[in-house]
Every structure is written in structure tokens, then in C-alpha cells.
Design goal:
heterotrimer; A alpha/beta (486); B alpha+beta (479); C mainly alpha (94); A: 486 residues; alpha/beta; Amidase signature (AS) enzymes; 11-stranded mixed beta sheet; 16 helices; 11 strands; B: 479 residues; alpha+beta; Arc Repressor Mutant, subunit A; 9-stranded mixed beta sheet; 3-stranded antiparallel beta sheet; binds magnesium ion; binds zinc ion
């Protein structure tokens, strides 16, 4: 029975804890053992905080015995991407630059999870500063795909996706700037949601590209995704870009089916280079939506082909600015025996950052530098407007958009490392969602050569309810949802 | 100084706003605390932090914009200005660039010629202060204190409108005074909460194009602003006379050797890479908000000065003196509010007796030993005729030096002699004893009136009512 | 858009990155090819198109001017790579 528990949903585990069928301590112990057993191979975690996790679990158990209100995620272990700060718990963003950095504060989402009774179990691996699509750009080594350890899990939130896929935890948080939740969710066969920009507080999410970053959850089921969204979504006075709108109950919004819902299929998203296996899995997913009563509408998003270029200008410009604070003065890595101040800066940053991060800082500095701003940054922001307008027009006609997440399944470790542009082009199907600030989700919809394929669903801003309901309808009709990785 | 060159000066003033908390976080904003005891995660620019704008800082900035006749943008924006320096926590300063809060204002300054000159305010924008770097001369290292980082600043940029160091200082003093009247900045140059950078260039008289400008930083008193500008004016003139070209550069004022020095460093030519801060949305101000702020503005020095001239018939000079600091004008207002003192009389006493005594002791008005109420009581005794002007000065001195109570001083001194019978008796005695003088007076030498009045004063130890004594003397002598 | 080694060094200095010779060459090639790719945006006419800096049409929220307790000095300095009891230490400025 105990191993089967690992494969239950977070919601069901929470019920067992609250009804005292199992203690939070025992449950946490089970997941910690699972991590201990599997992580040497897959390397999903950068840090597992065993003692603190068990202490948190004991506190929940104590509260339950006292009859206190224990919160909607009581006793449920959650893994946190290392891009998100955790008070007293080393946070490195998988960078040498932040080796040994211990934040004196919790990100708002972490604080909310703690209050909801969740057990913060550890920090997951990722591409350094969330820059990458394979989790190979980690200063602490790559994470491996749970379906084939010779392959990448996707990225940048690869560790969180793998931790959930391997049932090392029932839930995890990631961050998504250009697909960093949805793409690894797709490649690992789990559910991954990028909320509307501003729906979840970014306070405590280490900034990569501030106008694109959002924190979101990984789960094995859509209801679990809704449950954790109920906890982390909502206004935060510490984030000026956080939307003050009330948060609906996403869990109760799942019911009711999708009969009559209009699902748009954008023709531009079936790109050259997409494998036949991916395409047929996506088609099967879309067919399930139709079978569940959705009306399919062919739509066009004419500026799709410009998304990658737009994204790489905006994201790198903002990144070059956000990463200027890593200077070796107040925290983080400092080069040994600097000759002078300039030497301290330039060697600390050169030695502390990996090459993908440096490449993006260079590109971002270039596009913002004197004489180039209008040609690149301003131009990209104008094209961003056109991309948003594509979606505005589409959402006049449809409620949800369905399309692939990634044109390919998980690729082999090391296969793309040397060609950054090729790697950037992998993000082509996930980037628009960030540029337009939309909510997007990846749900498992099939396999190609025994590797999972995710179906991407998008909705209009703050349309998480219809998005999750559509994802739930698909999940109910998907026959392979019980297939286990690892 | 008449030379071939015309001097062009523009000033950039940074004023720290007197808020409780910093501009983008709830970290306390205070001065003179131990290093690094006033920080929080936002101040230190820790990974993951975000800025949230302080409403009071916005209000203060708008007040300054309104007080300097600026137009206030309903939608303004924050931008990031990038450079690396150890006391700049994030590698960028949050500032305003394209769309500053206030623009196109002006203030009037008084020139020594007596004319008034209007100096343009190009813009006033909001930004955050940096920390402080303390240089250790002995060791090869510097120390960084972030207490000041994130304190709200407004940067007030003037037009290139000043034509001499005197004008520049006059402009600075007016700005300073406005900030103090608004009570939004402590205005202490030494402590750095009112800081001035000066741009100065020279051009031939009659020439249209501006010359190459030099920016002078690190000037921390009004006196140094003047000295630095005079020095730089002469340096540039010498350069031009010698046929050399001025290089556009930043120079630092070195007050120990009284000169500006080129600030050479490895820093790249400024490329600040401004772009809109994605962490902050546009600052939007409604008409109602702006009207509410405008209606709460206190009376500004210029308005006060005009009112003093118009309502109290004070001289321009006295009005200017009395409004030269908010503390002084508050003192004057308080004197008037007590005992219904006569405004002109009060103005004279504040600007001559009180300021004279304070100046001798090197004390500011805040440290006056004579409260406005006590001065008003002295003036009350004086204008009711119960003491003479001379006695009033004595009372003032006792109150100033000994902290005495004016009423008791007046009563122990004995009041003024205003009894006509008593004065007549003295007068008659004097007339009887000085027949020669009486003769001369009656022959037409009327200047001798002073002699008789003086004799009465002597006999009464100065307590005789002078007006009454005068009248009685004329009547007796002409009898 | 061709980025040569000098341009790479200029950007590296502005970014405070002490690139080695080999990195300079590699970045010159990679940045050139990325900039070539992004230049496809020039195909699009964008005159009169408002730039999007924020996807949400909101104004910045204002916070009441209330001070909270600051970090202790120990906590503030705790992550500093070089500090004494009072302050962060850096190589001498100027
Ligand atoms: Mg300036
Ligand atoms: Zn400034």
C-alpha cells in the first residue's frame, strides 16, 4: 500500500493526512525515501532538506491532533525550483554565482504554501537562472528524463517536472519565461501550468525576464494543479505587477465539461520540423476535446513566426538588467584576489556565470546599448503588440487554443548544446503565451516512441478556469494517464 | 568681471525626501544610524525582490513640481539606469527617463541689480538614492553602507539659464527655501540630503551655440558651489584664451585645495541602457489627486513675501529677509499672532534687534532665546507707551541674555513717566536754570528744543514719555 | 548583423564580463548569427504601433509610507563574500 500512496493525487493524500489514515510525517518519509532511491540517477534535486521537511510534517501532525485548521495542502510535500527563494534554504538558481546563498526571506508563493500546510521538501535543478530548455545548463550537472535517462527532461524547470513525474513529490513549482514549465511538463509527461502574467506573485522568484516570468505548478493531475493554484494565486502587495482581481475557486471550476466550448487550432503551430509522432499525439488530443463536446475552429496567429526573435530580444534585454546585481558585493560569488574593482566585477561575473547566461547578458546588453535600443528593443516591443493583437483577435472567436508544446519529444543529452539558435527555436510554440501574458497549460496527450507528448492549451488573460476545465475534460478522456515513468 | 566670455550654468539638484520609509520598500529611511542597520531585502537588491512605490514620495515630488510651476504628468514612467558601482545594489538605479513626473517649470530669483530673473526648471523626476562608499586610505579597500540606498530622491534639473556663479547660488537658495517651506526635505548640504551638480560652459558674447560643458560634482555647500563655479569659469576662460579646447568631462570639487579636478576612471563612456522598468507599471495620477495635493500646499516664500508687502506695507527688503527661511517667517507670523503686534514694528524688531543679536552669537532662529510671545509682549509695552524705545531695548536684552520675563522686567524698571504735571515741573525747573539757552531759542534757534528734552530725559533716567515731553517743551518755551 | 571581436569586447566591458580570447571569438560568431536571425523583425512595418512594456493595462499601486523593521546588520551582511562587523568590503574605489 505504501508505495501505491506515492502515485495518488495530492488531493487524495491530503485527505488521508487530515483524516489521520497516515501521518504527514510518515507520508513525508515515504517521499524522502523515494527521492533517496531515485535521485542518484535522475538528479532532480539540488537540495533535499530532510530534517526541516520532517519537522514541518510533525508540526502539521501536531496541528491535526489539536484539531487546528491545517490548510488545503496539509502534509503534501512540494518541491521548489531553485529559481524561487526559500528562507534559510540555499537558493542558487543552479548557478555558481549563487553558490551557498541563503535567502533571509521566503518568496510569496513559498509563504503561501507553508500557510496551506504544504511541506517544503527541497530545491530542484534547472537551467542556470532559468535560461535554457533542457536543464543541461546547470552548474551542478544535468537532470535526466524520467522516461529515458539518456535524454533531457526539458527546461528550464526540468528538476521540478522530473520530481513530479517520478513521484518524488506530488507537486512542484517552476517558473516559465518562454515555456520553462510547459515544455518540461510535455517532455516528462506531467501537467504544467503557466498562469496569466500577474496572476501569481513574482516576489521571490529570481528575475530572468521580468515582463515574461511567471511561477506555476507541476502536478500529475489537473485537479491537483487547480488545488495548488487556489493556494498560490492572488494579489500580493509586494509585487506591483500582480493583478488585484479576486481568485475564483479553480477546483470547483473544473466541473461541467466543455460541451459547446470553442477550441481554436492555429495552423501556424504545426511547424516544419515537427515529428510525425508528435503531430499524431496532438491530433489525438484535439480529437478528445471534440469528442467531449468542444467545437473546433481553425484560427490563424499570423505573427507566430516572429515570436522567437521578439522573445530573444526582450528576454535577453531584461535579463542583462536583472543579472547586473550579481556583482560579488552583497552576496554570491567573488573571484579570488581581485586586482581592483573592475577586475572584481568582471572576473566574478565571468567565473560565476555559465556560458548560456553570459551569452544572453551580452545579447541583452547589446540590444539596449546606445544606438541600438530603437532598432531592437523598441522594435521587439512593437512586434509584441502585434503578437498580442493576434491573440485578442483569436479569442474573439474561441475560448481556448489547442496546439503542441514542443515540435519534438525529449532529445538526447548534449545533442543541442553547441547550437544556441537551434535551441532557441525549440521554444517557438511556447513563447507567444509569455509575450501575450496568457495562461497556458501542458497536459499529457500521448506518446511517441515511448516518450511523452504534451498538448498545450491557451486561454485569454485570467482565463485559468476555462483552461483548467478543458484540460480536465481532456484528462478524463485520456487513456494513458496512469502510465508511470521511472 | 567683464571678459570676452559669457558663462552658462545649469544645475542638477538631488533632494532627499523626508519620508518614513524608502521609496520602493518599507525599510525605514533615517540618517545617522550605524552602517547597514537600515536595510531590507529590497534595499540590498537580493535575488527575487520587487519594488513597490511609496505614495508619500510621489506626493512630495508632486508638491515640488507644483511649487515650481511645473506641469505634472498624469502618466509618468520609471526606467532603469544601468551602471556598476559598489553602492548601487541592483546594478541599476530606478529613475525616470522619457516621461518624468514634472516638466517645464520655473522659479524667480533676485539679482543683485534688484532685478528678478526667471530660471527654467526643465524637469523634476523621482529616483532612488544609492548607498555610501567609505574609502579607507590606509588599506587598499573601501567599505559599503546601504543605509541610504533606496531613500527617495527628486532630481531637479534647471535650464542652462544662469549666467554667473552668483545667479547659480541665488537659484539654489530659492530651491532650497521652497523645499524647506514644503517641509519635504531637510535641505542639509553637508549631510548630503540636498546635493548639487553643476554644468558650466563658456561662449563668446553674442555667440549662439553653447560651448563644451563640464560637469562638476561633489560640492557640498553653497559656498563651495560658488567657489567651484568661479574656479571653473576662470579655468575655462584661461583654456580658451590659450586656444585650447575644453573636453567634456566630469570634474570633482576638491575643497581642500580649492579647485576642480578631472575625475578620470576606467568607467566606460556612459551608456546607461535606459529601458522602462518592467517591475513597475506607469504612475497614473488623477485630477482629483493632483487637486488634493495642490490644495494642501503651504504658503510658499514668494507668496508670503508678496503678501507681507501688500498687507503689511513692509519694504521689499524686509519681506525678503523675513521669508528667507521657513523658520524665520514662522517666527514672524507667531509674533504677529500674539498680542496683535504692529506688523511694521514687529518686522523692524525681528530683522534688526533679534537677527542682529542672533548673528552676533552665530545662532539660527531656531535657537532664539526670545520666544515670539515674549517679543510680542515687549512690543506691546512699547506701542502702548508704557516704555520708551530705549527701555524696550533694555527689556529685550534682559529677556535675550537672562531669559527674563518681559512683564516683570518692565514693572521692576518702573514704567514710563507720562504724567504731564510731573514732566512740567521738571521742565520749568530746567527753563529757570538755563536762561541763556531759553533766550537763544526764543530768538529763533529752535534746534535747541533737543537740549531741553535731553535734560528732561537725563533727570528721568530716560523714562520720560518722549512725545509728551516734546509737546510740553514747545508749549513752555513759546509761552 | 556582423559582430566583430572588438564589438564583443565593448559589450563584455559594459556587461562586466572578463571574457577570454576563445570566448570572444565564439561569442562573435554566435551573437552574429542570433542578430541575423532577429533582424527578421525588420520585415514587419511597425510605424505607429504602441510598444508593449506591460501586458496588463494597470497603473502602479502605491504603498502607504509606513516603515517596517529593517534586517539586522548580521542578516544583512550574512551573505557578503567579504565584510567586517559593519560593512561590505570591496577593492578600493578610485
Ligand atoms: Mg542627472
Ligand atoms: Zn539623479
Amino acid at each position: 500500500m505504501s508505495d501505491d500512496l506515492l502515485f495518488e493525487s495530492a488531493l487524495s493524500l491530503r485527505e488521508r493526512v487530515v483524516s489521520k489514515q497516515i501521518s504527514a510525517s510518515e507520508l513525508t518519509g515515504l517521499f524522502l525515501d523515494r527521492i533517496a532511491k531515485t535521485d542518484a540517477t535522475y538528479r532532480a534535486f539540488l537540495l533535499v532538506d530532510r530534517d526541516s521537511a520532517l519537522a514541518q510534517a510533525r508540526a502539521i501532525d501536531g496541528a491535526i491532533v489539536r484539531g487546528d485548521d491545517v490548510g488545503p495542502l496539509a502534509g503534501v510535500p512540494v518541491a521548489i525550483k531553485d529559481q524561487i527563494v526559500t528562507r534559510g534554504l540555499r537558493t542558487t538558481c543552479a548557478s555558481r554565482m549563487l553558490e551557498g546563498f541563503v535567502p533571509p526571506y521566503d518568496a510569496t508563493v513559498v509563504d503561501r504554501l507553508r500557510r496551506a500546510g504544504a511541506i517544503i521538501i527541497g530545491k530542484t535543478n534547472q537551467d542556470e537562472f532559468a535560461m535554457g530548455s533542457s536543464t543541461e545548463n546547470s552548474a551542478y550537472g544535468p537532470t535526466r528524463n524520467p522516461w529515458d535517462p539518456n535524454r533531457v527532461p526539458g527546461g528550464s524547470s526540468g528538476g521540478s517536472a522530473v520530481a513530479v513525474a517520478l513521484r518524488q513529490v506530488p507537486l512542484a513549482l517552476g517558473t516559465d519565461t518562454g515555456g520553462s514549465i510547459r515544455q518540461p511538463a510535455s517532455l516528462c509527461g506531467v501537467v504544467g501550468l503557466k498562469p496569466t502574467y500577474g496572476r501569481v506573485s513574482r516576489f521571490g522568484a529570481v528575475a530572468f525576464a521580468s515582463s515574461l516570468d511567471q511561477i506555476g505548478p507541476f502536478a500529475n493531475t489537473v485537479p491537483d494543479t487547480a488545488a495548488i493554484m487556489n493556494v498560490i494565486a492572488g494579489h500580493d502587495p509586494n509585487d506591483s505587477t500582480c493583478v488585484p482581481a479576486a481568485v475564483p475557486d479553480y477546483l470547483s471550476g473544473l466541473d461541467g465539461g466543455i460541451a459547446g466550448i470553442k477550441v481554436g487550432v492555429p495552423r501556424e503551430y504545426f511547424v516544419p520540423g515537427m515529428t510525425a509522432g508528435v503531430e499524431s499525439a496532438i491530433q489525438a488530443g484535439i480529437d478528445r476535446l471534440r469528442a467531449a463536446g468542444a467545437e473546433l475552429v481553425e484560427i490563424s496567429l499570423p505573427h507566430t513566426d516572429y515570436c522567437v526573435a521578439t522573445y530573444y530580444i526582450i528576454a535577453t534585454a531584461e535579463a542583462s538588467s536583472n543579472l547586473a546585481r550579481y556583482d560579488g558585493v552583497r552576496y554570491g560569488y567573488r573571484a579570488k584576489e581581485p586586482k581592483d574593482l573592475y577586475d572584481m566585477y568582471s572576473r566574478s561575473r565571468d567565473e560565476g556565470f555559465g556560458s548560456e547566461v553570459k551569452r544572453r547578458i551580452m545579447l541583452g546588453t547589446y540590444v539596449l546599448s546606445s544606438g541600438y535600443y530603437d532598432a531592437y528593443y523598441r522594435k521587439a516591443q512593437q512586434v509584441r503588440t502585434l503578437i498580442r493583437q493576434d491573440f485578442d483577435a483569436a479569442f474573439q472567436k474561441v475560448d481556448v487554443i489547442a496546439c503542441p508544446v514542443s515540435p519534438v519529444t525529449a532529445f538526447k543529452l548534449g545533442e543541442m548544446v553547441e547550437d544556441p539558435l537551434q535551441m532557441y527555436l525549440m521554444d517557438i510554440l511556447t513563447i507567444s503565451c509569455n509575450l501575450a501574458g496568457l495562461p497556458g497549460i501542458s497536459v499529457p496527450c500521448g506518446f511517441s516512441d515511448n516518450l511523452p507528448v504534451g498538448l498545450q492549451l491557451l486561454a485569454k488573460p485570467l482565463g485559468e478556469t476555462v483552461l483548467l476545465r478543458t484540460a480536465r475534460a481532456h484528462e478524463m478522456a485520456y487513456p494513458d494517464s496512469a502510465r508511470r515513468a521511472g | 568681471m567683464k571678459t570676452a566670455y559669457e558663462t552658462i550654468i545649469g544645475l542638477e539638484v538631488h533632494a532627499q525626501l523626508k519620508t518614513q520609509s524608502k521609496v520602493f520598500s518599507m525599510c525605514p529611511a533615517k540618517a545617522n544610524e550605524l552602517p547597514n542597520t537600515l536595510t531590507d531585502v529590497v534595499t540590498l537588491g537580493l535575488p527575487g525582490v520587487l519594488p513597490v512605490l511609496n505614495a508619500q514620495a510621489v506626493r512630495f515630488a508632486v508638491m515640488m513640481g507644483l511649487a515650481t510651476h511645473c506641469s505634472i504628468r498624469k502618466v509618468s514612467r520609471f526606467a532603469r539606469k544601468h551602471y556598476f558601482y559598489p553602492d548601487l545594489p541592483k546594478g541599476y538605479q530606478i529613475s525616470q527617463y522619457d516621461e518624468p513626473l514634472c516638466e517645464h517649470g520655473w522659479i524667480d530669483i533676485d539679482l543683485e541689480s534688484g532685478e528678478t530673473k526667471r530660471v527654467g526648471i526643465t524637469r523634476i523626476h523621482m529616483e532612488e538614492d544609492a548607498g555610501k562608499t567609505i574609502h579607507d586610505a590606509d588599506r587598499n579597500e573601501s567599505r559599503v553602507d546601504f543605509n541610504r540606498a533606496g531613500v527617495p530622491l527628486i532630481e531637479i534639473v534647471s535650464g542652462p539659464d544662469m549666467r554667473s556663479p552668483d545667479e547659480a547660488v541665488a537659484y539654489l537658495k530659492v530651491l532650497h527655501n521652497i523645499l524647506r517651506y514644503l517641509d519635504i526635505c531637510d535641505g542639509n548640504m553637508e549631510e548630503g540630503n540636498f546635493r548639487c551638480d553643476a554644468n558650466i560652459s563658456l561662449r563668446l558674447h553674442g555667440q549662439e551655440r553653447f560651448g563644451t560643458k563640464v560637469e562638476i560634482k561633489n560640492i557640498n555647500s553653497f559656498r563651495y558651489v560658488h567657489k567651484a563655479l568661479v574656479y571653473e569659469q576662470q579655468r575655462q576662460a584661461q583654456f580658451l584664451d590659450d586656444g585650447k579646447t575644453i573636453v567634456q568631462e566630469t570634474r570633482l570639487w576638491n575643497s581642500e585645495v580649492n579647485r576642480t579636478e578631472s575625475m578620470r576612471s576606467k568607467e566606460d563612456a556612459h551608456d546607461y541602457r535606459y529601458f522602462p522598468d518592467p517591475d513597475l507599471l506607469p504612475l497614473v495620477l488623477t485630477d482629483e489627486t493632483l487637486q488634493a495635493i495642490a490644495s494642501e500646499l503651504p504658503e510658499l516664500p514668494d507668496d508670503k513675501r508678496r503678501r507681507f508687502v501688500r498687507d503689511f506695507h513692509l519694504s521689499e527688503y524686509d519681506s525678503a529677509v523675513l521669508t528667507s527661511t521657513p523658520e524665520l517667517s514662522r517666527y514672524y507670523d507667531a509674533v504677529l499672532a500674539s498680542w496683535g503686534a504692529d506688523p511694521k514694528l514687529a518686522a523692524n524688531w525681528v530683522s534688526t534687534e533679534l537677527l542682529g543679536a542672533l548673528a552676533k552669537d552665530g545662532k539660527p532662529i531656531e535657537k532664539t532665546p526670545v520666544s515670539p510671545e515674549n517679543l510680542a509682549r515687549i512690543l506691546h509695552h512699547l506701542s502702548s507707551g508704557s516704555i520708551s524705545g530705549k527701555m524696550a531695548k533694555e527689556v529685550f536684552e534682559k529677556v535675550y541674555n537672562e531669559g527674563a520675563d518681559p512683564d516683570s522686567v518692565v514693572s521692576t524698571m518702573g514704567g514710563q513717566v507720562s504724567d504731564p504735571e510731573a514732566l512740567l515741573a521738571i521742565l520749568r525747573d530746567i527753563i529757570a536754570n538755563n536762561p541763556a539757552q531759553v533766550e537763544k531759542y526764543r530768538a529763533g534757534k529752535t534746534q535747541l528744543l533737543g537740549f531741553f528734552v535731553g535734560q528732561v530725559m537725563q533727570r528721568t533716567k530716560g523714562k520720560a514719555n518722549p512725545t509728551l515731553t516734546n509737546e510740553l517743551a514747545i508749549a513752555e518755551l513759546n509761552r | 548583423m556582423k559582430i566583430d571581436a572588438d564589438e564583443v569586447r565593448r559589450i563584455a566591458a559594459l556587461s562586466r564580463l572578463a571574457l577570454t580570447g576563445a570566448e570572444v571569438e565564439r561569442f562573435a560568431t554566435q551573437l552574429s548569427s542570433i542578430l541575423d536571425y532577429v533582424s527578421k523583425l525588420n520585415e514587419l512595418p511597425t510605424e505607429g504601433v504602441e510598444p508593449t512594456s506591460h501586458v496588463m493595462p494597470l497603473s502602479t499601486p502605491l504603498r502607504d509610507d509606513v516603515a517596517a523593521r529593517p534586517l539586522t546588520r548580521e542578516a544583512a551582511l550574512a551573505n557578503g563574500p567579504s565584510h567586517d562587523e559593519f560593512a561590505f568590503i570591496v577593492p578600493r574605489v578610485i
